[in-house]
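Quick start: what a row looks like.
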Amino acid sequence: QASVWPPLRRAVAQSFLLRCGRRRFGVVWPVSCGVMSIPWMPREVSTRLYEREHELENVKTAYLLSTAYAGGFLAREDGRRPAWFNRMKLMPVTSLTPDLQEHLANACHVICMKVRQEVTSEPAQQGPRGDKPATGWQAGLLCARVLWRTLYATAASKAPMSRAGAPVLFMASCESMRQACKKLLTQVWLETQTQFTSKMSKYRNIKSRPNWSVLEGLQYDVFCKQCGFGLHNPSEKQASSAGSKPASGLQDWLEEVLALRFAIDWLSASMQDAQDFIDQQTRRLQKKPAPRGRVPGDPVEAQLMALKEKSVDSFAMMWTDDAE
């Protein structure tokens, strides 16, 4: 989305790169704020991403995919709360052709059914499973990790994003979103004590019904204002669907807490998956023998060899077993 990129350059720098005392992206940061947004990323890598224009294209792709993740997390549909689908500064799904929309809806339906089947099945009743998930929570995390990594790598390859830099940028996106989820978790938990206890007002209790705008305001403040993701202000842009409940309840707020905890575990595990991929890829490259120059006997053999090489070194290839 080239049209939304220029005003978001400042957010990209804040979310992924080195904060330093120079004028860039239309903002001056003080020298005293010279800390890393992503602690594990080397300063040389961040400086290169920050200063090289061709590297900014990779950062732009990572930022848009991160915004899509943030919007997807907020727009998870349960039929009760207002939808966030039209509040993301991305191309809407309605702009696709009808056949693509139908294909996307069918694919999402199959994926949702598979994930629901995986997380609702009792792992303890299926006997020993080796390294398989032992609980429904772990099964959900595995499904989420596989889907997120595959979608990220596949979309990044269409952008295009540098194939060698995709794992690192994936980790940067996960780290930025994990920081946002941790901040929002703190804010939601503190606000829950304010809205559903008599701490601030004697008229508030566990049966209170705060408006959805209270929760949406916290989400917008953390994800957009503090972390720089591309979202519209919910107070200015009406939701595409108002939901079936006119106001929230204690259960809705506790579900938000659980969803944030799940997202934090999900993103942490995704970062570890990317780290493991980088380690394995490095070992393969070190042990890879020199090419012998053998020519495949026929085109079919050549195609199979190319597919094998692609699947081994592809960041998008992550396998898992479903409940079947």
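That is the whole record. Residues 220 and 233 are 7 Å apart (CA to CA). The longest helix spans residues 250-287.
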